[in-house]
Structures are given as structure tokens and as C-alpha cells.
Amino acid sequence: MTPVSPVRQATSLFQERFGSGPVAVMSAPGRVNLLGEHTDYNGGPVLPFAIERRTVVAVGHAERWEAGSTLDPMLHRIDPESIELGSWTAYVTGVIRVLRKGGFPLQGARLAIGSSVPVGAGLSSSAALTVATTRALLALAGRRLAPAGVADIAYRAEHDEVGVRCGRMDQTVAAFARAGHALLFETGDGSLTHVPLPGKVWVFESGVVHRLSRGHLNERRQECEAALRLVRDRGYRVDTLAQLGVEDLAGLLRVIPAPWGPRVRHVVTEVARTRAAARALAARDRVALGRLLVEGHQSLRVDYQSSFPEADHLVHAAVRHGALGARLTGAGWGGAVVALLPEAGEARIVAELQEDFRQAFGRVPVVWSTKAAAGARSEKR
Question: Do the Cβ atoms of 199 and 372 come closer than 8 Å?
Fold first, then answer.
């Protein structure tokens, strides 16, 4: 059976809940981050791409704010003066609050949301929602913004209003992504380079849901800020951890204790891996890219301590069964593993890895593949 598209989900839900068709329908993709984990808020590069799975927001005019989702049977009335943390509506409310602070004219709207982006799988379902909501509400008000403006509103909704101390990677790739390409985003200077990413990438959902609102990400960011202060106390004139070089690590790690030293090591080595991964993609060297993925996962497991047993098992088993490389993608503490598989053996590797995981954890992981997709766009009603 062919799954219902998120566009059909959102438009059908709008008709069902509100008794009319929407005025505008906008979508934004989830993303896989190949490399550059926890580097964006430390001033370093990231290398994400947009996946084919999308979140769709259908909107219409109203005198108050109401929102419904195909993942939630309730129709929620939204009060922009009060944000309901812990609910998906917080992200919608966050967008409304940011827009209102910028002089947005609407006093209300009806929103219906459909999505094929897995929630809590480390694939940026929250940024897909905030970017699609931003585009939809701007369209309803007859306004247009460049991708940079859309990404900024979505970022401030999540960072400033919801309180997730994320970087700008997720919102940027959701707004700027190009089909068939990954996006090398140098967060230090804001430069964007589209790098060809042909073929498929496989996603293995661990079944462990992560919620950034639980505080793990905020805790790591605070540790990185403390680590930067310690680095500066040792005489290094840097504005971000990403400005350090690999050659600086040996000396720093002798004088900066755990947990701050390992956090510095992860950021510095991940910066180098991310730029090397972009070069590997440009050279179409999937073997080198796969090796970098495995090295990145090891750093997340040991130095950043954001991995978890199911992800570690998937990565190690994937390589053992013949994958070119694999690693945890997303912030961590739950989520999905991304893997590069050789075309000749991908069906065998997927089946063997699913059985391997079932024997270890008593369940079969959800597995799917994706190509690099386009960013936010308007959809036909």
C-alpha cells in the first residue's frame, strides 16, 4: 500500500477540521547530517542534506490561532502569549511569536500539519515544522522572504522561544537545500557550498526517541562554552572552539580536564572530518566518506558522549556486515544511524543488520533510503 503523502495528509486534515480548503500549502524537508555534529554552535562547518521526507503545513485565514496535526487527534487553540513547552505546538507558537515581534499583521490562522519525517529520530522534524510554518504564515499574509530570512525566523522560534540551544544548521538546510547535493555550511562565516551527493543514503531508526527539550543538548553547549573559557585562559586567542587546530590538541588536553577536554577534542577533530568529507564527496570517494563517518561516530561515543547502545550496535554491525561507513546522525541521546552501503550488497546488508539488531534488542529497526532532496517549497493545494 502506498503511504498517503504529507501534502494529502495536511490538505485533507484542513478540510476535515475546518470545513474548507487551505489558502496556502508549504513544505520543508527533514535532514540527515553526514558530518559536523555539534560543530554549528561552536563556529564550525556542517555537512547536511535534505531528505525526501517532508513536513507540510496547510493554512487559512481565521480570527484566532488553531492548529491540528495528523499525529495528534486534538485540535489545539494557540495563545501566542503562552508557549506550551513539551508539545509540538510550542514550535508553531514559537514561529508566531517571532513573526509578531517583527510586525507580522495576522491576528490568527488555521493550520493543518502532515508529515513523513520521523519524530525523535534525529532527522530534524522540529526544523522541518518551523520552516514550513514560517513559509505558510508568510504566504497567508502575502509576504515573501529569501531563504536566509525564513531560516532565521525558524531558528529564533526554536532557539529563543522554545529554548533549545541549537545551532542554525537544521533551519538553514531546510531552507537552502538543493536536490542531489549536500550543503557545506561554514557557520563561522555563513558561507554555503552545494556539494554533489549522488545515489542513496540509508537510514536505520534505532527506535530510541530523543527529545532535545530534556536538556542534554543545552548541557553540552554549556560545557563547550566553559571549555572555550578554559582555552582562552591558557592564552589561545579564539572566538570559537572551531578556530583551534588539530595541532593545538596535545597541549590543551594536558591542561584541560574532563569533561571539557574531550568536548574540545570532539569539536576540533569533527571540524577537520567535515571538511575532509566535503572533499571526499567532491572527489566521489565513498570509501573515504564512509571511513570518516565511522571516525565521527567514535568521537560522538567517546568524546561527546551523546551516543547510546542501540546506535553503537547499529554502527558496528553495519560495518561488520559490509557497509562503507555509518554513524549516529543528529544531536544524539536517541535517533537514527545513517549508513553508506555498496550498491551490489545493500539488500543483503539491510536484512542482516535488521536480524542482528533483532537478536540484540528484540525488535526490528525501521530502515529506509533517501536521496538528497530540495529545500522548502510551495505545494499544490
Answer: no
- Is the separation of the CB atoms in 98 and 153 below 8 Å? yes
Cα–Cα distance for residue pair 14/124, rounded to 1 Å = 24
Report the CATH number at residue 169: 3.30.230.10
The CATH number covering residue 361 comes to 3.30.70.890
Residues 248/236, Cβ–Cβ less than 8 Å = yes
Bridge partner residues of 47 (DSSP): 35
- Regions of the chain with pLDDT less than 70: 1-3, 211-214
Buried b or exposed e, range 259-294, using 16+ CB within 10 angstroms: bbbbbbbbbbbbbbbbbbbbebbeeeebebbbbbbb
**In sequence order, which residues have a C-beta less than 8 Å from that of residue 181 and are 6 or more positions away?**
49, 194, 195, 196, 197, 372
- Render 12-49 in DSSP notation, one character per residue: HHHHHHHSS--SEEEEEEEEEEEE-TT-GGGT-EEEEE
Q: Does 76 map to a domain?
A: yes
Q: Looking at the whole model, is its pTM more than 0.90? A: yes
Q: How far apart are CA 50 and CA 32, in angstroms?
A: 6
Domain that holds residue 118: 6-197
What torsion do the CA atoms of 245, 249, 250, 251 make, to the nearest 10 degrees?
Answer: 90
pLDDT digits (tens, 9 = 90+) for 253-266: 999 999 999 999 99
The pLDDT assigned to 142 comes to 94
Residues 12 and 157 in one domain: yes
pLDDT, tens digit, for every residue of 21-74?
Answer: 999 999 999 999 999 999 999 999 999 999 999 999 999 999 999 999 999 989
Where in the sequence numbering do the catalytic residues fall? 170
Give the phi and the psi of residue 16 in degrees, each rounded to 5. -65, -45
